[in-house]
Amino acid sequence: MADHAAEHEPAAESLVDKIKEKINDHGHDSSSSDSDEEKLPNVVESVKSKVYRLFGREKPVHEVLGGGKPANVFLWRNKKISASVLGGATLVWILFELLEYHLITLVCHIAILSLAVLFLWSNASTFINKSPPQIPEVVLPEKCVLEFASALRIEINRGLAVLREIASGRDLKKFLSIIAGLWVLSIVGNWCNFLTLFYILFVLLHTLPVIYEKYDDKIDSFAEKAMIEIKKQYAVFDKKVLSKIPKGPLKEKKKD
Fold it and tell me: Mind telling me which residue stretches traverse the membrane in this protein (predicted)?
């Protein structure tokens, strides 16, 4: 295995610049220079395709996160909105975790306060010669509910299919990675409850993507070295342990 699988983006750009300089220094005629210019984009694409990217991404971080408003919030495109969302999540965590406020109690108190204000306002409007409050009629659309239920069903079926594939014993590497991930998650769950864990993940979503977008070249270079080392250690583990585990023949049913 090679020590370095690929160079990072600045090296790729410097290589492209060198190619451009060589093409310009040759002093070919117009026809040959035109053909060189046509070949140059292919050279650029071939060089950039060899650059290692974390998780094998080929798109910008904004598109990886799905684009649109959620990606703008995670990447702090609008600092006021992102700070408001993160501040709101922090306030909720402080209420429920530090102050030990309960969700049902909070909902009931908000409902009591809202109904009391609207009730008093509606009755007092006749005495103060002002129009009563316009309470909007809220109706949950059937289409939105069906779309949400359909999307949830698809994700649940996808998760069940992944679990079935892992349990079938066909991919030992995926099985070990899932077991290790669940084991780490169980340890983290022993340290904190679900709300704290959810809040930590929410904060990470608002910090890690924007840091990665800013320093992606350095992070990708470090991740490349880490993946090379992990593959080396896995190869040693596979040679000394996994290869010695007896495996029965897996016969798949052939469909007619």
Answer: 81-96, 102-121
Compute the Cα dihedral for 41, 42, 45, 46 and give only its sign.
Answer: negative
Confidence tier at 116 by pLDDT (50, 70, 90): very high
pLDDT in tens, 131-179: 777 888 888 889 889 998 999 999 999 989 888 888 887 777 788 888 8
Rounded distance between C-alpha atoms, residue 47 and residue 18, angstroms: 12
193 pLDDT band, cuts 50/70/90, is: confident
pLDDT bracket for residue 253 (50, 70, 90): very low
- pTM higher than 0.70 for the full model? no
How many alpha carbons lie under 13 Å from residue 190 in its C-beta half-sphere?
5
- In this prediction, residues 207-229 reach a mean pLDDT of 85
Look at residues 16, 196, 9 and name the one whose alpha carbon lies nearest to residue 93.
Answer: 196
Which of 229, 227, 235 has its CA nearest to residue 56? 227
Distance between CA atoms of 11 and 64, rounded to whole angstroms? 24
Q: Which residue has the tokens 């959810």?
A: 198
Res. 14: pLDDT tops 70: no
